[in-house]
Amino acid sequence: MDHNLNMIRKRVPVKELVIENYTVGSISKSGVAVLYMDGIANKENVNTVIQRVKDIEFDEITDSSYIVQLISDNQNSPFPQLLDTERPDRIAAILAEGKVAILVDGSPHALIGPTTLVEFFGSFEDYFLNYLFSSFFRLIRLFAVAFSLLITPIYVAALSYHYELIPKDLLSTLITSRREIPLPPILEAVFLELTIELLREAGARLPTKVGQTIGIVGGIVIGTASVEAGLTSNVLLIIVALAALASFTTPVYRMGNTIRLLRFPFLFFAELWGMLGIVISFSFLLTHLLKLTSLGRPFLEPLYPPRITDSKDAIIRLPFTMLYNRPQYLRTENPVRFSEKKAKEKKDIDE
């Protein structure tokens, strides 16, 4: 923890940086540090984090992942409600915004809160690029997540109930690919989805070189064999492979796991009621997100409640000269980051 704190202090060399240390775990006696900027961070957010860290009743705290599960607002939600990072420069950036950081001794991951849903689809490297490229890459990630979540359920719903919506040219291709398939679309899709998940888990648990080989060769061999054996269609194989590839675009691993899990309820609802089932499952998901909070702050902000000021650095990122206010949902003590007028002034050196 001392090394991590030193790296953060090098990037935030001001006296306003406050570090409060606590001991958590009746057996492990793990050190936990809460970091915030005095005069910027909202005292309510800081007190909420400190109170929840003090109230932890657990014997062994070995990683910051334990803290996430113990202090989250809704521990039954599949969505992570605290953002984790290994980058000290990102910690410095969020402290300047008015957020709170949590470090655990022995863990390379720091926790950030409060956070919002859109932050999980933004990478810190976006700020190193021109705002046009950053906005474009963020939109690609959001499209990829929607594609990964919905494309397989839409395939199952279309072939089970709504085949009249498929264009004639594409319908003939689907009929040809499924002519000798004995399984219904739902079993075909579940078989391929579970195969992809097994390959992911096998690749993650095996040694690096062996895991990479298993992931690539296993995917090619099993995919080709399943099509030739008549268990799955080649069209669905391409769709599932693209959906798996799209899920890897999520910058935060925890959110990627959430997307992987949500595909299966969407699949089963699509089999039960077709497109209506997809709409119903999406309604349940949206209702859950509307109720979800991060340290008491709305998780779906700035989409709901809608805040135009915070949308400048959400789905897209505007130039730095327009990001002169800190996020409104944080209710910071000092909401202004820098002077808007001075940022727009561009004087030559001879002036």
Automatic annotation (TrEMBL):
Name assigned to this protein: Spore germination protein GerYA
Lineage summary: Bacteria, Bacillati, Bacillota, Bacilli, Bacillales
UniProt source species: Mesobacillus boroniphilus JCM 21738
Pfam families tied to this protein: GerA
Keywords: Membrane, Transmembrane, Transmembrane helix
Coiled coil regions in record: none
Membrane protein topology class: Multi-pass membrane protein
Superkingdom of source: Bacteria
Gene Ontology cellular component list: membrane
Family: Belongs to the GerABKA family.
Cell location: Membrane
Annotated TM spans: 139-161, 235-254, 266-290
